[in-house]
Prior knowledge:
Elements: H1 4-30, H2 34-56, H3 63-76, E1 83-85, H4 87-94, E2 101-102, E3 106-111, E4 114-120, H5 125-129, E5 136-140, E6 143-144, H6 150-157, E7 159-160, E8 164-170, E9 178-183, E10 192-197, E11 201-206, H7 213-227, E12 232-236, H8 245-254, E13 260-266, E14 273-276, E15 287-292, H9 299-309, E16 314-317, E17 325-331, E18 337-346, E19 362-363, H10 379-389
Parallel strand pairs: 11-12, 12-15, 15-16, 16-19
Antiparallel strand pairs: 1-18, 2-7, 3-4, 4-5, 5-6, 5-8, 8-9, 10-11, 13-14, 13-18, 17-18
Helix pairs in contact: 1-2, 7-8, 8-9
Amino acid sequence: MVRADTKRKTYNMKKILFIFFFIKLIFFTNYSNSSETDIYKKIDLFGEVLEKINKEYVDEIDQSESMDSAINGLLQSLDPYSAYMPPEIFNQMQTETSGEFGGLGIEVSMESGVVKVISPIDDTPAFRAGIKAGDYIVKIENNQVQGKTLSEAVELMRGPVGSSIELTIRRRGEKKALTFNITREIIEIQSVKMELLENNIGYIRLTSFNENSSDQIEQKIKLLENKQKINAYILDLRNNPGGLLTQAIRISDFFLDNGEIVSTKSRKASENRKWFAKKGDITEGKTLLVLINYGSASASEIVAGALKDHKRAIIIGENSFGKGSVQSIIPLKNKGAIRLTVAKYYLPSGKSISEVGVKPDIEVSEEGDDFRIKTDTDNQLNYALKLLNG
Length: 390
C-alpha cells in the first residue's frame, strides 16, 4: 500500500520537474545564442540534481524548503543584502508588533554563511550586553548559524519580551568565542539626542535615519541656537546602521550651502539620480566634527562622505562599514518578497561606498573592552572635545 504523503511528494516532484521542463522549452524555443544555451543547460542540470537528491539522499527532504533555499542561495550569491522572504517572514516585517514579541536591538547582515552585526542600537539589550559592530554571530542558543538564511537566523533571535537568549560571538582580535546572555525587550528607537557640552559645544547623537530624524535635528539646533551662542557642533553617527535616503540627503543639506550630496547609479540609466544641497547652512558655517565607526553604515556614510568631500566637517573615528547600496522590497505572487539590491550610492567625489566605507580624516580607535559611547570611557568623543577646545 502506498502512503498518501509519499504520493503527494511524488506528485510535487513531478510538478517541479514539469515546471523546469516548461522553462527549458521557453528558453529553447525563443533563444539560440551560446550564452542562452548555457542557461538552458544549467536549468536542465538543476532539474537533474533535484531529482537525484529526491531519489538518493539519505533522509527524506522537504521539497518546498529545498526550493526556498535554492532561491535564497541565488539571491545571497549576489551580495550580503539581497535575500528571499517567505510569506510568513514578509508578513511579520509588514506587521508592527503589539508588544508580544521583543528583540535584541541589532542591525545584521549575512557574510560567509554567518550573521554579521552591522551595529548595535543605542540603549538596547545588545548594546548594554557589549555586542559590537563587526561581531559574527555563529551560534544562537544551541543552533549553529552556518547553513541558515538571514531570515531564519533573525527569526531565532525573536521571542517573548523578558525571555533570554544566548548568543555565541566571534570577534576580531579575540582567539576564543564569546558568549552573551541577553534578555529580549521591546525596541524603541529615539533617533535624535542633543545636549550642550562644555564651552558651548552642541552635541548631536543620531542613531538612525527614520522619517522624523531631520525634523528633530532642525528643531533642536534652532532651539539651541536661540538659547545659547554655540561655538561648534559634534555630529555623532557611530553605530548608526542607516535608514531613509531622503533623511540622509536632508540632514546633509542642513550643513551645506551648495554642491552635490549623493548620486545613485542603477542598471537602468533612466533611474540614475543626483541630489544637490540648497543654499542655507542652519549652523551658519560653525565648526563641525563628525564621529563614525565600523557600525556607521548606509545613510550614515552618505552624510559623513558628503560633508568630508565638501570639506565641511572633520571626520573622526574609525573606517565606516561600507554598505553603499540601495535595496528594494519586491513582492512576489506567493505573498512573499525578495529584498534586491537595485542601485549603488556614490559620493560627490565619485567614489563608491560599497565595501570601502568612509575613511576618517583623523583615525581614533576605541580603547579598551569597557568602551561605551557617551561615557567617561569614550576616548573618541574625548578626542573631539580636546580638538575643539584646542
